[in-house]
Structures are given as structure tokens and as C-alpha cells.
Amino acid sequence: MAEGQIRKALSGYYYVYQNGELIQCRGRGVFRNRGESPLVGDFVDYTKEGESDGYIMKIHPRMNELVRPPIANVDQAILVFSVKEPDFNTILLDRFLVVLESFRVNPIICLTKMDLLDEEERVKLTKYIDDYKSIGYEIIETYKNDKTLLERLQPVLEGKTSVLAGQSGVGKSTLLNTLLPELKLQTSDISHSLGRGKHTTRHVELIEVCGGLLADTPGFSSFDFDTIEKEELTSCFPEFERLSEGCKFRGCLHIKEPKCAVKGALEREEVPSYRYEHYQQFLQEILDRKPRY
């Protein structure tokens, strides 16, 4: 029995990495019987059958697991958002942040196309950047032909398992090209090279980059709140979670309750009003969700 990590899953096979080699494994039937499924990112025990084949015998406990894409033990997500073409979108960013916080995945915000902003737009964006930094989020700003990008991303990626997420058209492929120059491809070809062309099987794969592991996640362009309960939403807004310790009622939802510390901070303009508006909107989505049986 040996221990390794699943780096790729494709067509019913799991490719387990250990000591520089990939072992093509099948999952044992016992996993199906228990309703379990090995995921890319899982640490597993496996037995070898021959030189490069084997069976997964045991899945180690997970730090976390994402549903879309199906991947486990993620440390952080690099959220790629353009500031123009398409314009910077705080409500979409907050959706991403809330879902990642719920999975206990650390978000890092990567802003692309900074060079397209005029002075007025730059001033407006700086306010947003300051807001998110004050909450505690790390922000990386990128420009066209940015020669320092790889150097700045190296310490961010090193020793971590990261997912790359963002809408199409925001510069995600350009970022991938910077991180994986060995592909030597046009940006439009990159998703195809990773097995994500329109007519290829979608799969998740962890690729070694900058001393860490990176998964590109094509379906990671929008989020819903299926797995978040109304009582959990506050904890997905870090600045609200810190403030909520001062609320009169435990489990305060910060809507109509008296002596609410979050609403007090809002009135004093200590939290951005758009973040509170997004919180209200997301809470309503959760309250309107059809019950699951």
C-alpha cells in the first residue's frame, strides 16, 4: 500500500501522483456502495498492479471539497476579474467571494486590463480596491505585457493548491499562458490544450506551476448558494462576521433586528453600502430557495 495524490480524473480512471510518476488507478467498488467518489486533489492510499496501474483503497479526510469543479483540498482561488471590457462587477465578485468563504477557500483577487482605465475610472476603482483590501483580501493588479506578473505570482502560488476562476473574456487564458509558457499557444487555444475545447471531455487536472498546483476551472463562471444556509451567510462576509459579535441577538441576520452592530456600522459609513446591499440580495435568494427533501 502506498500514499499519493489524485492529480487528474478522466474516463473512470484516477491518476495518482507519487514520487514523480503517475499511476493509473481505478476506484474500489466499496466507494460506490458508500456513495463516495474520489476527487482530484484527494490524498489516497492505493495498491499497485503492475508497473503503472493500481486500485485506490482509501480516501484520506478532506480539508474541503468543491462541487463545480469537483476538486478537494483547495487552499486558494485566484479570481480573475477585468476592470474593463467587461467592466468590474462587484456583485459578481461578491458572489464568488461568498461561495469560496463558505467552502473555506482563501480568495485572491486578480484584476486584469488595468491599463485600459482612464483617470476618472482609475479613481473610482481605487475606492473599490481599498474597500476589499480593508476587508482583508489580497489584490493583484495586472497590465498588458506585464513583465513582472510571473515574479509576483510565484510567492502566491508556491506550496499551495490553487484554482483559477473567472468569467470568459476577463484575461484568464492570458494569465494561464503566463503561468504555463511551455504551452506556447494563442490564448484562444489554451482551453483546448487543457482538454477543455467545446468538443472535448471536460476534466479537472492539477498542473505543477511555480512550486504549487493549479487547476483551471472552466465552469467556475457563476455561483449559486445551494449549500449555504441563512445563518451561515454572515460568516461569508468577513467584515460582517467581525461586527456581528456586537449584535444584541445571537444569530442576527442584520435586517430588522434591533441593536444590530452591522446596521450601526452601515449608518456610520464604516462598511460599504454595496456590500450590505449584496448581502441583502443573497439572503433573499437563500430565503426564496425551494426546500430540499
From TrEMBL:
GO biological process, one term: ribosomal small subunit biogenesis
EC number(s) reported in the record: 3.6.1.-
Co-factor binding details: Binds 1 zinc ion per subunit.
PROSITE patterns to which the protein is assigned, alphabetical: ENGC_GTPASE (PS50936), G_CP (PS51721)
Residues that coordinate or bind GTP: 112-115, 166-174
SUPFAM superfamilies documented for this protein: Nucleic acid-binding proteins, P-loop containing nucleoside triphosphate hydrolases
Pfam families the record matches: RsgA_GTPase, RsgA_N
GO MF assignments: GTP binding; GTPase activity; metal ion binding; rRNA binding
Organism domain of life: Bacteria
Required cofactor names: Zn(2+)
Cellular compartment(s): Cytoplasm
Self-association state and partner proteins as the record states: Monomer. Associates with 30S ribosomal subunit, binds 16S rRNA.
Name assigned to this protein: Small ribosomal subunit biogenesis GTPase RsgA
Source organism of the structure: Lysinibacillus halotolerans
Lineage: Bacteria, Bacillati, Bacillota, Bacilli, Bacillales
